[in-house]
Amino acid sequence: MYKNLKIVAVLTTLIMVFVQIGGALVTKTGSEDGCGQSWPLCHGQLIPKDWPIDTIIEITHRGVSGLAIIFLLALGYMAWKQIRHVREAKFLIYVSLSFIVIQSLIGAAAVVGIYEGDFILAAHFGISLICFAAVLLLTLLIFETAHGVETRKIIVKPFLRYNTILVTIYIYFVIYSGALVRHTDSSLACTEWPHCMPGQILPGNFYQAVQMGHRFLVGILFIWMLIIFIHVLRNYSESRILKTGWMIAFTLLVLQVITGMLSVFTQVNIFIALMHALFITLLFGVLCYFIMLLSRNK
């Protein structure tokens, strides 16, 4: 049941992952101007004459984003026809479609020079992240519906409930601070880890402050999620979905911290930097799934 719908949902989710990674690649490689200030054309042409690496990266990202819109439209239509009776389906369809449009418009506005502020551009990744989370949740909802468990819920006590909600909100600000590090070119403002520079703990300029501020927020996140993880292992060992879910979430957080550290030691190796963006994207998706399950409980 729902075979075609599941296939389209999985493909759309994978494409959205590539949209996230592609956006990070564009920023990390400084390829934002790979097509000049032309949009949707590239250097004013449908097919540019010259293909330097920054043009290839930028035009590929645009192509993947366009493909994501097409698949999202197909997924939204199919999900509306087949599972709109499920509680969360309509909301997730609306969010995924609206945020992919907002993401595309912000990207286009940045290209043509309507705005160029680092603090605004850093929000682009966060908006794309919400779209990814909505698509991921819609995909999981489709598989739940196919297996007749679309009303699956988790029964938790107030401590876990409120901390899950709050840490999901908090991690969004952590992600924004990480995007700000990229957009302000602060990735190498500090050459040491966990402190900033040799013999220097506190930041000495704006760029170091952005870098160390992000590290500070991640440190709080790590301690917070470690406390929640231990709480789940001690009090919800009988709940497979909670125990497994938080094991995945904390593992992704550890990998995100490790790749962040390695980014400094390797002078922002592009592969490690992209893995850094991937792990935080998946972590946000897992936490959003917990929120969806919690929302089913009165």
Describe the protein in words.
By secondary structure, the chain is mainly α. The chain contains nine helices and no strands. Helix 3 packs antiparallel against helix 5 and helix 5 crosses helix 9. The radius of gyration is 20 Å and the shape is flat. The two termini are 30 Å apart. The mean pLDDT is 86.
Question: What's the short story on this structure?
Answer:
With 298 residues, the protein is mostly helical. Helix content is 73%, strand content 0%.
Largest sheet: none
Mean of pLDDT: 86
Extract low-pLDDT stretches: none
Q: Distance between the terminal alpha carbons, to the nearest Å?
A: 30 Å
What percentage of amino acids are in beta strands? under 5%
The string of secondary-structure elements, in order, is HHHHHHHHH
Shape: flat
Count the E strands: 0
Alpha-beta content class: mainly alpha
Percent helix, as a range, is: over 70%
- Radius of gyration, Cα only, in angstroms? 20 Å
Number of helices: 9
